[in-house]
Amino acid sequence: MIQIKRTLFFLLALPVAMVGQEMKGDALIPFDSSVRTGKLENGLTYYIKQNGKPENKVDLRLVINAGSILENDDQQGLAHFMEHMCFNGTKNFPKNKLVDYLQSIGVKFGQHLNAYTSFDETVYFLPIPSDDPEKLEKGFQIIEDWAFNAVLTPEEIDKERGVVLEEYRIGLGAGKRMMGHYMPKMMYKSHYADRLPIGKKDILENFTYDKLVSFYKDWYRPNLMSVIVVGDINVDDMEKKVKAHFSSYKNPTNERPRTIYEVPNHKETFVAIESDKEASSASVQLMYKDYEMPKATVTVADFKTELIDGLFSTMLNNRLGELSNSPTPPFTYGYSYHGGTFARTKEAYQSVAMSAEDKQVDALKVLVAENERVKKFGFTEGELDRAKSDFIASIERAYNDRDKTNSSSYVGEYQSHFLEKEPTPGMEWTHAMFTKILPTIKLTEINKLINQYIKEDNRVVILTGPEKDGLKLPTEAEVLAALNVNTNELTPYEDTEVAASLLRNDVKPGSIVKKEKDAKVGTTTLTLSNGVKVTYKKTDFKNDEILMSGISFGGSNLYSNEELKKTQFANGALSEAGFSGLKLNDINKFMNGKIAYVNPYIGSTSEGFNGSATPKDLEYLFQMTYAYFTDLNMDKEAFEGYKQKQNSFYKNMASTPSFYFQQEFYGFLLKENPRFFGMIPDEKAWEQTSYELAYQKYKERFANAGDFQFFFVGNVDDAKMEEYASKYLASLPSTKEREKITDLGFRMPKGDLKKVVNKGTDPKSNVTIMYYGDTPYSPKEALAMEALGEVLTIKLIEELRENESGVYGISARGSMSKTPYGSYSFNISFPCGPENAEKLTESALREVNKIIKEGPSAVDLAKYKEGEVADFKKDSKENRFWLSALTRSYSNGTDAADVLKTEEKVKALTTKDLQEVAKKYLSKGKVIGMLMPEN
Known about the structure:
Elements: E1 36-39, E2 45-50, E3 57-64, H1 78-85, H2 97-104, E4 114-117, E5 122-129, H3 133-148, H4 154-170, H5 174-186, H6 201-206, H7 209-219, E6 225-231, H8 235-246, E7 269-276, E8 282-289, H9 300-324, E9 333-340, E10 347-355, H10 360-377, H11 381-400, H12 407-420, H13 427-437, H14 443-447, H15 449-453, E11 459-466, H16 476-482, E12 512-518, E13 523-528, E14 533-538, E15 546-553, H17 561-567, H18 584-590, E16 596-602, E17 606-613, H19 618-630, H20 636-650, H21 657-669, H22 683-688, H23 691-701, E18 709-714, H24 718-729, E19 753-758, E20 765-774, H25 779-803, E21 811-817, E22 823-832, H26 837-854, H27 858-875, H28 879-892, H29 902-908, H30 911-922, E23 927-932
Parallel strand pairs: 2-6, 7-11, 14-18, 19-23
Antiparallel strand pairs: 1-2, 3-5, 3-6, 4-5, 8-10, 8-11, 9-10, 12-13, 13-14, 15-17, 15-18, 16-17, 20-22, 20-23, 21-22
Helix pairs in contact: 1-4, 1-7, 3-8, 11-13, 19-24, 25-26, 25-27, 25-30, 26-30, 27-29
């Protein structure tokens, strides 16, 4: 996997144990005492931490401080190629035995087991069970083998060329072409401009074996490595394992220096104006590169500087957000930050926006003007107070959940410490210092930052966008002129008054008329006086999280065809108008420092809400829900602003081959459906759209709260839930009418069908194979279909990737649905070279037919069971899992307690079960869709 790292500054990604440290600027940030760290004699660094979430799991990670930046000219792409080879045969796991073994213990390839290569590092991920000493030992054997014992035989290297070239092919397109033009300006005279991790096609096709072997020997060495172990483990035991597996290895006698490549400064302002016929959107990026290399955050003073940087970005982005929510938005979105670039050695102040295709220069002017507005007038005390409130809310949430943090979060933290010397003080220290320092930060300290950021040299402007007839591209002169704003025309930012409440109407509480408990599932259901039902499950998975979903059957299937045509593209705009007479910006400003959100939706068969909140801010979630029911604003200006942003986003989407394929393919399948009006709105669709009708239909859909059922999962307080449900939900208008899920009877065509779509200039294809149809819903068959998809994926990877080297990734997915009608769906999809599309389609269908005739192997089914049971054990300790389980059982009319039998049902599956659903559903007609290039 390729990763090009672009580090945005997110303050609370700062590591999260010492309390009471003196707040002296030169005091060093301590290292978290709960982490065992050390360095072996050979230079290998290790980090070990005991963490019980998830239970009986450990995250192992091997980090190599070497990536594509260290390749020789004739090795371009081999850092990434080496990553691939580590999965293709090692001393203890020859050929495909490594992936095979890990699948047998429940570790899924790609989903759990993975790796990435960037400019500066290569990282391997290995999550494994920690409750079995043999599995733990093999896990350490694997990362030891990755580090030092890869088997680089000519045969395996040549086999993997095809897979790597397929990954290279996936990356082709407008983005890569435009990047090839602007990278030399962005990374001016830097080695980074010439070392994209994917490499060069001719080298990947033709490199001699010794080039890969030498890269491995040069850079996979102990003093450039870190082993990270976090999970439900014994720290002493893990330290012994690290020493046993890694102490004996030596660094090369004449080791190559690990060069640090800088990005040179430049006096010029470089402008790159890039366009492409397949570009789907227009964007603007303004960079002011720092003069010096980034300085590690090591002292309390550095920590304070990070806070100041974060407050600056937050306040400016709040302003840019207000502009994007205005009736005439200058861009779809815009943001600014000071942080990383492609290069580890260069940071920059960057302002970015996505704009309309013909408004790039205008968007650039707005970004420059907002920077200059800050430079001339600074921020206001009200803005600073709100930013601090947001920071406090975020750190308090992280602190409250400090004992519920997933191991994967810690692993990433220690990786950053190893590679970039990011601080790792622990959450207790971070929270304590945060709450001490934040109140002391003054507006003057933040306002002066802009003078360090903005400069007239070391500056780069990058415009990317579509190329088409009638669209005039900006000139370099126009771009340079846009950088010079007349500051005399600027006025100070006007900070409006913060609303006193989310509600403007009095709420007349109702009552709870019935209270029922389900001991099996651990839920409580309240029936309210107006018919609303509230089901909640109290969990201890997170201390500061409550998730919500509200559902009512009905949805847009109750609209006429004409009503749907006029409303479907306007529904997304409804919440943009705000509620209670408050505009979106007013609501956002009021919610500063509070963590709660609610999003209403209208689907085809239901309408409802999704939301979340901390326990402290749960009442605001209820207030928003009440307002969306009773007091949604109607604001035509907000709709026009929404429409403008949607046009900017969607206008050129069809120029992207993959999206064009989806549009044409589903247009072919749904051509007889009178309710299919395309996937994206064009000018004609907008002309037919009625915001007024969409608003009216929304009011109809949410006029009767009595047929809504709400679900809450998280750290729920019974008394608060009863209080808020009685006040804000029991008070909603209702009738005795109860709507049902409606099946309109429209179906996609049956039989053996094929649709080939030609789009794009790159030699890229995509293949989709679909089986679908009506069938009575069966829980047993539904599970067997899901298992069939997973098992077939294993076989397809073995055949089409490992044996034929024809694909980088391929997947099969099976499912059954009960609503709005009983149905099944099974899809196989993969990207590939056009010359191989037909052959690989035949190969995929051959694997399907093998399962139909012979059934899957017991070994592959066992792999599925191990992975599924492991995922269930992990996921069932997450609030999101239970919210989904409760809402799904409600929609399907099934017993919520069925989810408790998941492990039992998975283990009971047989190869015959999978063969039978394969025979029943994959022997019928199928639809094949192929995206092929135009030439």
